[in-house]
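tokens incoming
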């Protein structure tokens, strides 16, 4: 018999798990308690509002050049199961650590995914071409991520564009990334961009949401999510300095099902 402690999951957690079925992921019953999260995964500046995220069974990171040279074997050994790697930005920037991280994550057994940082002042066609040129097609990888948030230098690149223009650009870029990878992209966003652009829209994409002071349900009302970026001050063996930490919305079994589903999409 399962202990009462194993069975006592909060309604908010069940909301996240229920989202898996709505997003087309096979549903699995949780069996027993989740494997404990490694004590070596820490946070230099923990926020009480995201304490739940630290206990979720499937932990990940997202990285770029700012994490320097990563010891991916140590990252994997600490219990990190997935990593989103910055690849491209706009139409002419390639993260200088992308290829190294892409290879290192694969060698260590960390499930990898590449992300593109959207620029609102560059044509989608050029951004799509740049992404295709620099991101390999890997059937075993996570779906690619389209990172949509306000950005840019107002002197050289408009920080914002009208809402409908932003939505059109997102649809076009996501379609191009799907055509290249064979997988529907994940959409990453933050609270401000979601409120100003995505709020009220019907999303056909899995969502990766940033919320570093509260559960995503509290900052993105009525929005289902699959990945949660819960801190920017994480500490993970194999990485010197801070790193963004993330959690998957479900159990280890559900994460494995998601991985299998992602591979099947490219066959």
């Amino acid at each position: 018999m399962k202990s009462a402690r194993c069975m006592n999951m909060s309604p908010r957690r069940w909301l996240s798990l229920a989202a898996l079925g709505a997003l087309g992921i096979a549903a699995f019953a949780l069996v027993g308690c989740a494997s404990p999260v490694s004590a070596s995964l820490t946070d230099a500046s923990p926020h009480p509002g995201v304490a739940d995220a630290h206990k979720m069974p499937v932990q990940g990171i997202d990285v770029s050049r700012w994490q320097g040279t990563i010891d991916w074997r140590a990252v994997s050994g600490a219990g990190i199961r997935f990593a989103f790697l910055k690849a491209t930005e706009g139409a002419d920037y390639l993260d200088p650590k992308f290829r190294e991280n892409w290879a290192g994550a694969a060698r260590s057994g960390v499930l990898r995914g590449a992300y593109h940082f959207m620029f609102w002042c560059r044509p989608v066609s050029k951004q799509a071409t740049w992404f295709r040129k620099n991101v390999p097609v890997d059937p075993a990888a996570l779906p690619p991520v389209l990172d949509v948030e306000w950005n840019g230098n107002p002197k050289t690149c408009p920080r914002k564009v009208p809402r409908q223009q932003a939505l059109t650009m997102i649809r076009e870029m996501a379609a191009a990334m799907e055509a290249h990878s064979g997988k529907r992209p994940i959409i990453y966003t933050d609270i401000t961009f979601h409120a100003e652009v995505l709020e009220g829209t019907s999303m056909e994409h899995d969502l990766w949401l940033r919320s570093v002071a509260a559960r995503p349900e509290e900052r993105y009302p009525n929005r289902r999510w699959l990945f949660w970026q819960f801190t920017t001050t994480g500490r993970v063996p194999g990485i010197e300095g801070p790193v963004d930490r993330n959690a998957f919305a479900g159990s280890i079994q559900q994460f494995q099902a998601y991985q299998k589903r992602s591979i099947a999409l490219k066959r």
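note: The longest helix spans residues 163-181.
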